[in-house]
Amino acid sequence: MQLIEEFLYRVKTTGPLKTTKGSPDGERNYWIVSEAELKGPQIKARIAAPGSDWPVPSNESPRCSGK
């Protein structure tokens, strides 16, 4: 199998901020995403406005859940 680079994904974040420990939905880390872009031969995109990411704290390696 040969991997082909499709795009570069750049993200600027602030965090982690205080967790949501004690929340009814469970504890989450909180990161502010202030800038992000995708750049490649077939795509060029930037976020329209700042947002956030709420990952579940874990000792495991990062992974994509598809959610």
Fill in the keyword field for this structure.
single chain, 67 residues, mainly beta, 4 strands, 0% helix
Quaternary form: single chain
As a percent range, the share of strand residues is: 35-45%
Mean pLDDT: 83
Unreliably modeled segments:
none
The largest β sheet comes out as:
4 strands, antiparallel
Summarize the amount of helix as a percent range.
Answer: under 10%
What does the overall shape look like? elongated
Spatial gap, N to C terminus: 27 Å
Number of strands: 4
Radius of gyration: 15 Å
Number of helices: 0
Content-based structural category: mainly beta
Tell me the series of helices and strands, N- to C-terminal.
Answer: EEEE
What does this protein structure show overall?
The protein is mainly beta and 67 residues long. It has a domain at 13-53. It has no helices and 4 strands. The protein has strands at residues 8-17, 30-40, 43-46, 51-53. Strands 1, 2, 3 and 4 form a 4-stranded antiparallel beta sheet that branches. A hairpin with a 2-residue loop joins strand 2 (30-40) and strand 3. The radius of gyration is 15 Å and the shape is elongated. The two termini are 27 Å apart. The mean pLDDT is 83.
